[in-house]
Specification:
This protein is an alpha+beta fold and 114 residues long. The chain contains 2 helices and 5 strands. Helix 1 packs across helix 2.
Length: 114
Amino acid sequence: MSASVAGSLRVSNDVIADLAGYAALECYGVVGMAVTDEEQGVARLLPIYRLRKGIEVSMGEGRIVVDLHVILEQGVNMASVAANLVSTVKFILNQIAELSNVEVRVHVEGMRTH
């Protein structure tokens, strides 16, 4: 039996990034998160323990904006994977962090064979 507790919940940007990153990794077609090397202009696949580097969390127009920089598996339908990513990340952030006003933007940085 659960009981309500009065108060408010504050969630840091790092926690939001972690939740979004782990949710993204569970989506079909996602190889991993990416960061772009500005000197070389090449996207690098990030190891799991550095997921946050491929995710930007900010506030915009009264809502939380999550930008996911991902590398997808070659041969997948990018539009379907992106739509699945958006809905999965929104669902996880709503269920775990109780965030309902979230905009998720997917940036495909590259394609790779898995």
